[in-house]
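dumping the sequnces here before i forget
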Amino acid sequence: MPDSSTSQSNAKGLFQSGTAKDLLRVLTCGSVDDGKSTLIGRLLFDSQQIYADQMTSLQSDSKKFGTQGSDIDLALLVDGLAAEREQGITIDVAYRFFATKARKFIIADTPGHEQYTRNMATGASTADLAILLVDARHGIQVQTRRHSYIASLLGIRHVLVAVNKMDLVNFSQHSFNTIEEQYRDFAKNLGFNDITCIPVSALLGDNVTAASQHMAWYRGRPMLQHLEAVELSSQMDETGFRLPVQWVNRPDSGFRGFCGTIASGEISPGDEVMVLPSGQRSHVKQIVTMDANLSVARRHQSITLTLEDEIGVSRGDFICSTDHLAGLSDQFQAHLIWMSEKELFPGRSYLLKTCNTTVATSITSLKHKVDVNDLSHQATKTLHLNEIGVCNLSLGQPIAFDPYGKNRTTGSFILIDRMTNETVGAGIIDFSLRRASNVVWQDIEISRNKRAAQKQQKPAVLWFTGLSGSGKSTIANLVEKKLYDMGRHTYILDGDNVRHGLNNDLGFTDVDRVENIRRVGETSKLMADAGLMVLVSFISPFREERQMARRLMADGEFIEIFVKTPLEVAEARDVKGLYARARAGEIKNFTGIDSEYQAPKNAEIEVDTTSSTAEQAASQIVDYLEKEGFLDFDENP
Amino acid sequence: MGLIPYIMNQIAELLSRSEALATQTGQSLSTISRKTLKDGKGLARLKNGGQCTLKTIERAFAVLLELEHKAGMTGTTAQTPANPDRDGQLTHLQRLEAQSIHIFREVVASCENPVMLYSVGKDSSVMLHLALKAFYPAKPPFALLHVDTGWKFKQMIQFRDRKIKQLGLELLVHTNPDGIKQGIGPFTHGSATHTDVMKTQGLRQALDHYKFDAAFGGARRDEEKSRAKERVFSFRNSAHHWDPKNQRPELWNIYNTRVAKGESMRVFPLSNWTELDIWQYIYQEQIEIPELYFAAKRPVVERDGVLIMVDDDRMPLEDGEIPQEKMVRFRTLGCYPLTGAVESTATDLAQVIEETLAANTSERQGRVIDKDGDSTMEQKKREGYF
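..and the predicted 3d for all of it:
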């Protein structure tokens, strides 16, 4: 090959600086009208990634398909397929590439409409950062919420909100600030590590690659500079060393190498490793590559390991560091994004493919689907194209895994239809539904958080207090039904199921009333510890005992609900005929008649049964729980 | 990608590193300028927006690197690309290499009868290099298939045969026998018919004959707009057709490799590489590529603004057309009558890359096939062209 040694050495420095870039994978999402393709076209155009012949073709295309009159339409640079160009929309994920001195960028350009949720999820699955487009005229829209949720769900931790079309709002700082404030407020629970808002005009180029001449009030960096400089946090993939074994290399009897791409951590010769699922231990002998054996290898590298001992390792296994092992399970809760025209059939056998193995699976229960627009949960029996749901999966055999929140590579899977071989769904593992049985490799301390996490909920004690006949049990039952429908694990403690058993030795004297409440308080504490949402429906007339119960629970877990009904009203209702009997002297120490009721002064919730129905009261309580975050779920407690 | 701002970036880096060196060592900028640019005022001129050639910059960087080493400033220089660099971050070439290797292994682990399409060009050369890496110390566990249209440059065939022999790999060569019988060729039948019969149909015949269920190809997403949406694992029905509207979603690094009998996958390990990445990798790895990529005196005629090399006597010359010796090279290689040359003086890899960096036309520009109509490539792909 003609390659003189002199030019080789001269060029060395040049190519070192040219090749030592890192890689940033970016997702762009926004709807047609947000100007997404124009923005990407502008990035490519302004960073001069467009060749002269492509420019010529762009000019002729602009005349033919353009939406910008006689001007060139930068969007046409990126709208690839003929069908899309005719319809003027982007219908698939397209990948664009450009490089600056600092970085090489791979842009996954995805459509933003709800019917293309699967495409967006596809683009998001490999992205480090999401660019969300917001039209400055319209502010945060339903689609902005949807895009943010999907980006968050797929594990993107960096968001750049490009407030576009600033030229159409006279480059107004006020418009921009309002949108930024709205967005930050909305996104605060989505788990993003950093959110950067930039006012841009993709059409005119303001703040895309160069600072805007029209927005002196904006002090931040233009988009490109931000993309070049943003530091990726290493929060994701913080699990220990993981080599999902992809292939075993056996050229002859003397060599057995285990090949795969490192999913997290790093490894050196001599390190002790464990193979999952077998649980066998060995030490790394060599890290073999064609260039040379390596002294260390890290995440993203595709390597071949040899081990000191002859142990059985095959495709589908994980080689892990012994101090941070992956989990092993055949039962999972997962979020599922449905990608097929044919709906999900719970109970049907699908193939589940992870980063290195394929196993049979079926959906054992579909808990709910998530409305991607308002994030509410809805009961459902199936998932349709582009719907996202939470389900339990049962696998034909255990696989090694990590929760997706900890590792995107080892916590993800796709579902394949056995008959058509179509990829019908993509899933992310929330957690295992049971401890693995056949390997003991670490002591997992089952904490209250873990128990609650398994149920995907936050424990709470809803303490209903009020006069007899005020409607406590009716309301509590309605609340429980609502929570149950939302897939929550609940239990009601009330006089009927406690006084007949646990407390059947207690009467209605003040002492017995105190002991009654103490026992109920302790029982609800145990149940909250087990991760349940406990509804306690007792008259509990004394402030002190309610206070005692409150002190038993973890901070913020005790929610006192005062079911407020005037005595006359309760007595007039007298559903069980108890007031009449008390008035007749047949029942002693009846609260409100001859025993005191101390109304709460600072109950978290007060429901007035004279002005609202039981159904309204129940909704009021569920709304409170939602507002206070009791219905959110923190996957990493 | 043609990086016009590349030189500007290089100048900016040269300036900032020179200034850092001046601060560190107490030398004046003009002293450093004299050493690196052989001109005491060179750096000052560049600072004021002056320009210089890439060659000058290369040299300046080489000297600067030595000066930095002497001053103990190793931290400012790039690391050896073969090892993970600062903070354990891999360079973009290392990431691309690892992804490609992952793809190769996934196919071998999950497909029954894979093959690698080998077209002798630079992308094929990179692909072959990656395949060797993926399976080292074993040899790639699949054969190479060359669909020979009969009109490839002679040097390509020579290079191919020598390379395969040197590596000890299995090569399958297929030329459409129907096409040969009918005497199909680009001059007599036009580029469209020739490509369809000899390349597209020839490829289908070979895939059907050997019953391959997966075929590696060297296509890249940056080559052409319709390729930007191509999957890494691209599903083809039993008629080898590609349906752009019905592609399997591809998430994470999980690839659905399942096909029914008669169906197949085209697999593109270089999907995320750009032309510049390819050249940088060839440079970094010292991958051998055919001589045709380097400038040499070659006999060419100009047709419709494209320089066509007269590679053999099958090329009919029009009246008054006389082949002229010109210093030319090729940015892509294919059938010689369909592959335009560019005038160039770049005789080694560094120079070729320098020209590529400064180029303002895309590499496919020299391909006669792409000009037939704007959506031509998409059309050809639907029909089974690679």
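Chain A touches chain B through 99 residues (CB under 8 Å).
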